[in-house]
Design a protein that fits this description.
Order of helices and strands: HHHEEEHHEHEHEHE
CATH architecture of the largest domain: 2-Layer Sandwich
Low-confidence stretches: 24-32, 38-86
Radius of gyration: 30 Å
Shape: elongated
Number of helices: 8
Number of strands: 7
CATH topology of the largest domain: 60s Ribosomal Protein L30, Chain: A
Number of domains: 2
CATH class of the largest domain: Alpha Beta
Largest sheet: 4 strands, mixed
Strand content: 15-25%
Length: 212
């Protein structure tokens, strides 16, 4: 429909021309003071929470882009959702859980990212193999330190348990050895120092039941 008022037509044309000449600037519409963005841009990822209950069961990380202000670029998404020790532990047979609540018969430590024992642990294992004979069923449980994802640490802890179980089978072929790989949890030492990590890289041996 034609516009009968010439002045109104001129005004509308001017507004439309301004819109074409000056496109919207999305960043400016959402921009807050730079100091505020600097305070919220220090980290590439932000962990909203890392623990539920006694042991951590899930961890979420949210990624907002390297160097992006969270208030200006709130486009974060969940990076990973990992299962931790509590769920795996709860799924074990009751006899295994009961055994793991007791003191282990022995504990041996490993080199970083390896199934090789530390020199001290090698001496401890040699002494253990010369000690009192095992009987019945024995549970061998492997662990790692906190470095790396659980998707890597769980298989590594299982390999550590198998490595020790193989040595024990050679000494006591009539014993039934069962193995578990628990990854990072539960930590023996709840810290991130080198000494704590070395202590957490371990295998523990538990007695399940004697021969009937």
């Amino acid at each position: 429909m034609p516009i009968r008022n010439p002045a109104l037509a001129v005004a509308i044309a001017a507004v439309l021309a301004g819109c074409v000449a000056t496109p919207p600037e999305p960043e400016r519409r959402t921009e807050l003071p730079e100091a505020y963005n600097t305070l919220t841009s220090r980290y590439v990822y932000v962990p909203p929470y890392t623990q539920q209950g006694t042991y951590a069961t899930h961890t979420y990380n949210w990624y907002y882009g390297a160097g992006k202000g969270l208030t200006r670029y709130a486009t974060g998404g969940r990076v990973y959702d990992e299962r931790y020790w509590q769920e795996r532990y709860a799924s074990l047979p009751q006899s295994h859980r009961d055994a793991m609540d007791s003191l282990p018969l022995a504990r041996f430590n490993f080199e970083f990212d390896s199934t090789a024992l530390t020199p001290e642990a090698q001496r401890q294992l040699a002494s253990f193999l010369e000690g009192e004979a095992l009987s019945g069923s024995v549970l061998v449980v492997g662990y790692t330190d906190h470095i790396g994802p659980e998707s890597y640490n769980v298989p590594l802890s299982q390999r550590r348990a198998e490595a020790i179980a193989q040595r024990l089978r050679q000494a006591w072929p009539n014993v039934r050895f069962l193995t578990e790989g628990n990854g990072t949890y539960p930590k023996l030492v709840n810290d991130t120092t080198d000494a704590a990590r070395a202590a957490n890289r371990r295998v523990e041996i538990f007695h399940l039941e004697a021969d009937q």
